[in-house]
Amino acid sequence: MTLPPAVAAVRVAVRGCLVRESPDVVAVACSGGADSLALLAATVFEARSRDVRVIGVTVDHGLQPESADHAAHVVAQMAALGVHETVGARVDVEASGRGIEAAAREARYAVLDQVADHFSVDLVLVGHTLDDQAETVLLGLTRGSGGRSIAGMRPAFDRIRRPLLGITREQTEQACRDEDIEFWRDPHNLDPRFARARVRHTVLPVLETELGPGVAQTLARTAETLRPDMELLDDLADLAYLAARVDDGLDLDRLDDEHVAIRTRVLRLAALAAGSPASELFHVHVRALLALGDGHVRGEVQLPGRVTAVREARRLRFGPTSTG
User: Fold this and answer.
1) Exposed, middle or buried by CB within 10 Å (0-12, 13-18, 19+), for 48?
2) Alpha-carbon distance 141 to 155, whole Å?
3) Model-wide pTM > 0.70
4) Are 130 and 167 in contact (CB under 8 A)?
5) Cα-based distances in Å from 73 to 41, 69, 179
6) Which of 42, 136, 300, 304 counts the most CB atoms within 10 A of its CB?
7) Could you give the CA distance from residue 208 to residue 212 in angstroms, rounded to a whole number?
8) In this predicted model, what pLDDT tens digit does every residue of 76-104 receive, in sequence order?
């Protein structure tokens, strides 16, 4: 019997990841949606011939009615698909000014990190697809977030791997149908209050209608093209930051000879190290820090997270914003 094309595509993507990395234990994050269930099914299949242990993980964010029942259903699905171990975790999501999506994502990755430590996991696989990548790039463009956001989601960082970034959402849904896997459609993905939902169901379809098919693939290809450049600049910035860092900020003399592309990245790293949250630290804040460091403005720059930057002689110092 010929393997259905969508099932084959997902399995090939997962196989490439396992062959490159040769893990002993992998965890797969599973929400019960088509993307993560297709990923989990393919991972279980490919792991059998490679003696790889598979841990299925689902996280209940408690953001919807009956979320606990849904999480229990996903745990049962993961077991039925043949994982070696299932993990279901409940988290409390507190937005704290970051937005509910960012807070939920942070809580979810914290759980995945804990599970990875507990089970000595080599890789954590998550089911982001080409469509997710296209949406990320488009959101980055509209927010003016610079090359880092336009470069999209990284295929790999730390223990996280995203093997399905070349697979479409349509393919993962078809793979689930081909394998008789019932999948869930998250109501939040249809909720127009969320920017990603509006991009998915309104903006991208309009672009496809007006500009022709293939917009999602083009956006994802843009990310793939830009990512090596951004990674090189980030690596150089890491070195420059280490050279310029002092106890409470930066030695500006160490940045004089650096290109502005490196200086802005170093300033962002310093702000993050001082406690400014990445989800709220935007280009406008970094440009303000650059102007302060270059002496074009005087005074101080207040940053998200109640962090303030002050220039003193040739030092840029970061500290808590005064409540007085």
Assistant:
1) exposed
2) 19
3) yes
4) yes
5) 16, 6, 18
6) 42
7) 5
8) 999 999 999 999 988 777 766 556 777 77
